[in-house]
Amino acid sequence: MPQQREITLISHSMLFYWWPIWVLGYIMALVTYFEDHRLAILPAATTVVESSTASEKGFAAYTLTVKEPITKSLEQAARATSTPGDGAPFKTRISQKAWLGPLFCVVLLITVLITNVPLRGVWSFVVLLMLVVLALVITLVPNGWDNLLAAVGNLHIHINLAGYLFIATAVLILWVVSVFIFDQRTYMRVTPGHIAICEHIGASIRDINGDRVEVEKKRDDMFRHWLLGFFSGDIVLRLTDSKEEIRLPNVLWIGWRIEQVQRLIREKTTVSRTT
């Protein structure tokens, strides 16, 4: 098998690490869709009483008492119920699971934190371990999320199906445009004894001889590089004659790709010395 004679390394923006948001958003949307619970918007002081006399087999009847004016949600529900074939009485799909909304918000906030506040070395491991332990404790306690949210004023976080789809789709579009269009314009192309690098979008391409470059990888952010980045890392080029340092952040699969880069550079250097 012939060895690869050219390697192109793409430097991704921080938006690349936002993939858990749109993935989890679509998962939450699917859970909400198949669960098929509906949302009713009711005015304050609404009362609900179960009516055993009006109940039928397989169905429970309730008497709903509301103050005037009645909400639009109930008007549409009453009209749809009295007109067969007019659609579901309550159209908005929402999950009754108490942990669904908080989990999505926590993942969203953690992703924002990871991509804006790099956590290096042992701090990254400590923070990750604390978050995992805390989430497990809350989940393993019976009604843990319900009790936790009830303790802060019953501030339950509920996101409907459209909310999950809107957030997930918006982030996915931004992610695709960033990863497959803009990020492709920030790269390093390596051939035997030669490096061509474009550090920024719209910047000129720099040509560097491989024999005056030291290549090093940086992978010290566990959250960003290991958990979200598919073993990504930063590549640092040090020019031996000028002490200049060039950094190419967020390169995927950096472990085995850096070995290929170093092999190409050494190959040219060896050939030039023996001829």
SSE arrangement:
Blueprint (H helix, E strand, L loop, with lengths): L6 E4 L8 H17 L11 E10 L2 E7 L6 H11 L17 H17 L4 H20 L3 H8 L9 H22 L4 E5 L2 E5 L7 E4 L3 E6 L3 H7 L4 E7 L5 E7 L2 H21 L1
Antiparallel strand pairs: 1-4, 2-3, 4-5, 5-6, 7-8, 8-9
Helix pairs in contact: 1-3, 1-6
Characterise the protein shown here.
This protein has 275 residues and is of the alpha+beta class. It is 45% helix and 20% strand. It has a four-stranded antiparallel β-sheet, covered by helices on one side. A three-stranded antiparallel β-sheet has the order 7-8-9, covered by helices on one side.
Low-pLDDT segments: 271-275
What's the number of extended β-strand segments? 9
As a whole number of angstroms, the C-alpha radius of gyration is 28 Å
Q: What fold name goes in the CATH topology slot of the domain at 7-15 and 182-274? A: PH-domain like
Content-based structural category: alpha+beta
Instruction: List the total number of helices.
Output: 8
Mean pLDDT across all residues, rounded?
81
Task: Give, in spatial order, the strands making up the sheet with the most strands.
Answer: 1-4-5-6
Q: Approximately how much helix is present in the residues?
A: 40-55%
**Share of residues in strands:** 15-25%
Q: Please tell me the CATH architecture of the domain at 7-15 and 182-274 by its name.
A: Roll
Query: What is the rounded distance between the termini?
Result: 25 Å
CATH superfamily of the domain at 7-15 and 182-274: Pleckstrin-homology domain (PH domain)/Phosphotyrosine-binding domain (PTB)
- SSE topology string: EHEEHHHHHEEEEHEEH
- What is the CATH C-level name of the domain at 7-15 and 182-274? Mainly Beta
Shape: elongated
